[in-house]
Amino acid sequence: MILGLDRMVRDMARQLARGMGSFFKDCGCAKPTRCPHPYSIRFRDALGKQREESGYDTQDDAIEYAEKKTTAPTVAAARRELGQQTVEEYAKQWVLFNPAFMALVCARAVREHRGHDERCPLAVAVTAAVMALQPGIRDVLPRNTNASVAKWDDDHAEIRVMMAANTTALTPVARAGLLFATQTGVLTAHPDASLSLATPRAIPAQPRDSAPTALAIQKAAGMLGRWLPTAGSTVTTLTLLGVRP
Length: 245
What we know:
Elements: H1 2-13, E1 21-24, E2 39-44, E3 50-56, H2 59-70, H3 73-83, H4 87-95, H5 99-113, E4 120-121, H6 122-132, H7 135-138, H8 149-155, H9 158-183, E5 187-190, E6 194-197, H10 212-227, H11 234-240
Antiparallel strand pairs: 1-2, 2-3, 4-6, 5-6
Helix pairs in contact: 5-6, 5-9, 5-10, 6-9, 6-10
């Protein structure tokens, strides 16, 4: 009984997650799990295209391949890195996602947006924060704001993949920071879905943080708040990044 339960738990753990895809056999045998015919998998890749491939001897082989194909590169890398982290390192990383820090990140984007307008569209502030949180995006940002957003997007197709994979999970983190910023009087929210600094000195002119990652995130958010509007309207900017307005 214990062995059977252990096997059941192991089999359940190897099933494809909902929305990841499915595996099957086309042979039509009465007992397909015991026949020698190979498994096929049907899945959507990281770009959202449906694909079907066959030739897998076991369910585990099919599932493992589907997981690799449907997991965005940055997510897979993050999982590998997480497995090598100590508890202390894990805790330090997630401190970055607390509302107080995210309020500072969003405020940094709003502050730097003032070069275009005193009021920063809510969508720009959230998008800047979401992008700044992702190391893969921070690493390929241009050195200055004279670069074309459209050309940069064309040159780095992986940006759309990362945004598609991570925006849904990171947006609530950014919104929690915005709520904290408005509640503490750092940012002012306006009826037209825009934000502004409550006072010119709401945050320091230059990012200050002893942690390198936290400092890099703040700098990236500020640069994005200043740079993203150069692409044109907010809708145009979000469309370029593959984000639904």
